[in-house]
Amino acid sequence: IPSEMEALQRIISTLANKNDEIQNFIDTLNHTLKGVQANSSNVIAELDEEFDGLYSILDEMKESMTNSIKQEQAHKSQELQNQLSQCSNALENSEELLEYAARSLDIKDPEEFSKAARQIKDRVTMASAFRISLKPKVSDNMTHLMVDFSQERQMLQALKFLPVPKAPEIDPGECLVADNAVTVVWRMPEEDNKIDHFVLEYRKTNFDGLPRVKDETCWDLIDYIKGTEYTLSGLKFDSKYMNFRVRACNKAVAGEYSDPVTLETKALVFNLDNTSSHLNLKVEDSYVEWDSTGGKGQENKIKGKENKGSGQITVLKNNTTRSGTPSPKRTSVSSRSPLIRGSRDRFTGESYTVLGDTAIESGQHYWEVRAQKDCKSYSVGVAYKNLGKFDQLGKTNTSWCIHVNNWLQTTFAAKHNNKAKALDVPVPDRIGVYCDFDGGQLSFYNASSKQLLHTFKTKFAQPLLPGFMVWCGGLALSTGLQVPSAVKMLQKSENGLSGSASSLTNVTQ
Question: Which Pfam family, giving just one, matches this sequence (predicted)?
Fold first, then answer.
């Protein structure tokens, strides 16, 4: 019966997953259907606008060219009318002179005849008929204002929808996720010399596979990318995955999106556990500060507000500076590792300690810590969950750390099992912690230069919790970080070569 129950539960789980998958696809179809209707209306409106623009230009051109013809017609008509009027006057005067000359032939008196002949001669000499041009000043030719729109008609007949760029193809094999940066690489399915630029969109998600319509954040956009790859750097890896998609754009239109690609962006994300921290420590999610006023006066207040106050903690993932303004993205303590928070006694005595709220049980992880400049004493390391409430980091066989003491004189040492090894290197502003649980290795680095400070080699027999001690000062924590490439390379070169931790290396049972 138990085996049948398990089989039935597996079937139920499979059906539930399939139903969820189908529902997600139905949501996608409905979303796409609405998109088809809305986009069709948009392109019809744009088509009307473009054709109205063409009609408007043609009407303006027709009116302008018609006016040119009418102006030419008026000019020629005026010139011909003026010439016609002059010729009519000249003809009238010439006919009158001709008639006078004909009558003069009948004059019998020689003296009168000679006088008339001289007058006629003088009038002929001055007559306009002999001074005007008998050639039209303008022709009736209007061919210089004729048009031939055959080529334009062919161009108009060739009007068609713009060629939309095809969807690019993202190559997951060429994409790179490293050092909290993602390089996305894509290519066009065929050469297109009309491409002007690309648009890359991305978003964080905790779902593997195809992006979902519901329960997803909005896409962030990078526009005007000229090449076929782009690197997003300085990312906060506080989600398991990131979705990416890209589309090509020419001068007028953007193409379809590529098939989305999901890349894994997993990194260790944890907060500080204020339910078990020393009462002399003021603890926020990613910041801890020595508080000399802590103690009995605050004990009842803190106990009464442990759960309520957890919603007022500032979240500073992948950020080495403390913000004085609470983040709107708050994380409920009760939803994070409930088996860890509240499951141990509060540190007391001289163990000014706070632990992380997430256990490390496998894999390789990295986080960073920055101390206040005036911090008198602090430790950074890891410990088993059973670290005693009076125990100090590095003074038991269940904890490993490096310790900085700036009281009177500066000392820098690696500590484990109440043994210390002085470190002859400058204390960095930021300390990077690398934990390889399966490989049994805990290394500390200068987070800026990636200089190796110290390495513990052991066999971790229990889950580990990040641990921090601080006195007279404060520590800022940065999580959501990938193991830096430089650290990975240093680990390869240091493995089997480093003897710096030989006096503190042991196998913990």
Answer: fn3
